[in-house]
């Protein structure tokens, strides 16, 4: 496979005119500077202090030192031709948002559209000590925070996203405890999921008030869920996981309701107890776009119950199976066809809703050649396959408007620490030197030509 398309004539698969080509990051993963300019502790700062919670005892320091080196990083994006940058605002920096003023202005000076995510998991620790997302008051505090941020940046941001992957925040943070705040309680996870949705709806109202002409929505991590066999037991396992992973967020946001089967599944975990009369109306605010984070599909079967907390309450008897695809360093199977399936399904189930792939990427071990380059052919193959899958979805009628590669820079990959590298750009965390990988140059070529060359035989 060539590193970049060499000429426009070689581009066989063109994306729609105006297609948004971007890269994405998250505040806690790259900013560093966790004690500067009035920033307060987040749940991730506290979580990283717990022995064994994060690989190698890693934390948000140093990150990729993006707080200090943002200008260099914006120049790097510009050199690659990246047209949009999806970043997240750190709620713990609410006392001083001047960094984001500087970042947004620098992006605009380079012709890069700023896309801002209000919440990428870094809840202020003080709010967690009052119950965090298990306390519905946090949803109202989130709306106040959103109002302040939109009031400050709303005239310059090209796209707003309220939440990133509320499934992870709820079920990994409060369910099995592998993410901050490290709570292991299924009832807490269900309450957190609902209150995150409420926070989304309330924040959408603030965005509409402060930036009425700017497209806004939410980002969800969505997975096609397939039963391993045609048995009733496997079909029911797939139904439950689809409900707990996908429909629990999609249908309150887009239809103003929880599906009846999901309410039944989660009755033992208190979902109906936390829903108040006007909540679903508040959650069901019209959105302009849906951000889709895609990494793989699920193949599930019924199985023997297991002990320990589950990411999916009431589904500890579901088995997740391998389907034989190659795997990334995260042990995730590479399944680009699932992206086509997902995008087409969303466009059919929720017609008229513009879609953006707001995260897609892969971790692979990176090694330098003798001449100081990183030949990450596996990452290029991953991105190439998924972009072809995205193009296939467009051909089948999916209203896909853009693609944000995860991620621009190597970073703190949450509980995996700095060991897992998703970046288009290698970061030496000791020296903070940036080195674009072959995948960065390959992606730059795709952006330049708004498409892909013909597939090699």
UniProtKB/TrEMBL annotation:
Its EC number is 3.2.1.21. GO terms for molecular function: beta-glucosidase activity. GO terms for cellular component: cytosol. It comes from the Bacteria. Signal peptide: none annotated. It catalyses: Hydrolysis of terminal, non-reducing beta-D-glucosyl residues with release of beta-D-glucose. It holds the Pfam family Glyco_hydro_1. GO terms for biological process: cellulose catabolic process. Substrate binds at residues 29, 120, 164, 295, 406, 413-414. Keywords: Carbohydrate metabolism, Cellulose degradation, Glycosidase, Hydrolase, Polysaccharide degradation. The active site is at residues 165, 359. Belongs to the glycosyl hydrolase 1 family. This is Beta-glucosidase. It comes from Actinophytocola oryzae.
């Amino acid at each position: 496979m060539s590193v970049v398309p060499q000429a426009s004539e070689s581009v066989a698969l063109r994306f729609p005119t105006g297609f948004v080509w971007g890269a994405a990051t998250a505040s806690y993963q790259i900013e560093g500077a966790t004690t500067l300019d009035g920033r307060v502790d987040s749940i991730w700062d506290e979580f990283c202090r717990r022995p064994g919670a994060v690989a190698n005892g890693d934390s948000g320091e140093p990150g990729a030192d993006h707080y200090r080196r943002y200008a260099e990083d914006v120049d790097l994006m510009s050199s690659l031709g990246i047209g949009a940058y999806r970043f997240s605002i750190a709620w713990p920096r609410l006392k001083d948002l001047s960094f984001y003023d500087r970042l947004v202005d620098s992006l605009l000076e380079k012709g890069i559209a700023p896309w801002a995510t209000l919440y990428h998991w870094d809840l202020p620790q003080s709010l967690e000590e009052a119950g965090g997302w298990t306390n519905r008051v946090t949803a109202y505090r989130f709306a106040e925070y959103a109002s302040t941020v939109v009031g400050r940046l709303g005239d310059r941001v090209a796209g707003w996203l309220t939440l990133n992957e509320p499934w992870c925040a709820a079920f990994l943070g409060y369910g099995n405890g592998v993410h901050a705040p490290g709570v292991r309680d299924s009832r807490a996870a269900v309450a957190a999921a609902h209150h995150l949705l409420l926070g989304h709806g309330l924040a959408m109202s603030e965005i509409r008030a402060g930036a009425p002409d700017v497209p806004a929505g939410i980002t969800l991590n969505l997975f096609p869920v397939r039963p391993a066999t045609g048995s009733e037991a496997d079909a029911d396992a797939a139904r439950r996981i689809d409900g707990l992973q996908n429909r629990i967020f999609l249908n309150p946001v887009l239809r103003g309701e929880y599906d009846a089967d999901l309410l039944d599944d989660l009755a033992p975990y208190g979902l109906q107890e936390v829903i108040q009369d006007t909540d679903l109306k508040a959650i069901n605010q019209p959105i302009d776009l849906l951000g889709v984070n895609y990494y793989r599909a699920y193949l599930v079967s019924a199985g023997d119950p297991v002990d320990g907390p589950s990411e999916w309450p009431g589904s500890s008897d579901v088995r997740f199976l391998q389907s034989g695809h190659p795997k990334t360093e995260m042990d995730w199977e590479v399944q680009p066809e699932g992206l086509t399936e997902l995008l087409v399904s969303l466009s059919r189930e929720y017609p008229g809703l513009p879609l953006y792939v707001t995260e897609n990427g892969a971790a692979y071990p990176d090694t330098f050649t003798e001449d100081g380059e990183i030949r990450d052919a596996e990452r290029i193959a991953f991105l190439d396959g998924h972009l072809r899958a995205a193009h296939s979805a467009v051909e089948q009628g999916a209203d896909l408007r853009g693609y944000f590669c995860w991620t621009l820079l190597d970073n703190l990959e949450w509980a995996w620490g700095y060991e897992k590298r998703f970046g288009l750009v290698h970061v030496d965390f000791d020296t903070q030197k940036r080195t674009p990988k072959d995948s960065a140059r390959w992606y730059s070529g795709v952006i330049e030509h708004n498409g892909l060359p013909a597939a090699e035989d």
